[in-house]
Amino acid sequence: MANVVVVGSQWGDEGKGKIVDWLSERADVVVRFQGGHNAGHTLVIDKKVYKLSLLPSGLVRGKLSAIGNGVVLDPHHFVAEIKKLRAQGVTI
């Protein structure tokens, strides 16, 4: 897959998370490059619900995922989100 960047033109819910999830099915690497844990999105994959706000969406699809230096990282929220996804069977 070619390099693809999803950038919104406004703050708030405009469907970026759904587009990223759709693209991540075909991606080799998924990178979160900006924002913070206030940007939540919900994914439903095979009838299982995942709620993410800091970690890249590609994690729930088993894709190589990275967090870039433009992301505001709250360490407490980061650890809590990892624990939540691991409890749902996601390998991180």
From TrEMBL:
Protein EC: 6.3.4.4
Alphabetical UniProt keywords: GTP-binding, Ligase, Magnesium, Metal-binding, Nucleotide-binding, Purine biosynthesis
GO molecular function, one term: GTP binding
This protein's GO CC annotations: cytoplasm
Catalytic EC class: ligase
Gene Ontology process terms (BP): 'de novo' AMP biosynthetic process; IMP metabolic process
Signal peptide (UniProt feature, chain positions): none
Stored PROSITE patterns: ADENYLOSUCCIN_SYN_1
PANTHER family tied to this protein: ADENYLOSUCCINATE SYNTHETASE
Name used for this protein in its record: Adenylosuccinate synthetase
Origin organism lineage: unclassified sequences, metagenomes, ecological metagenomes
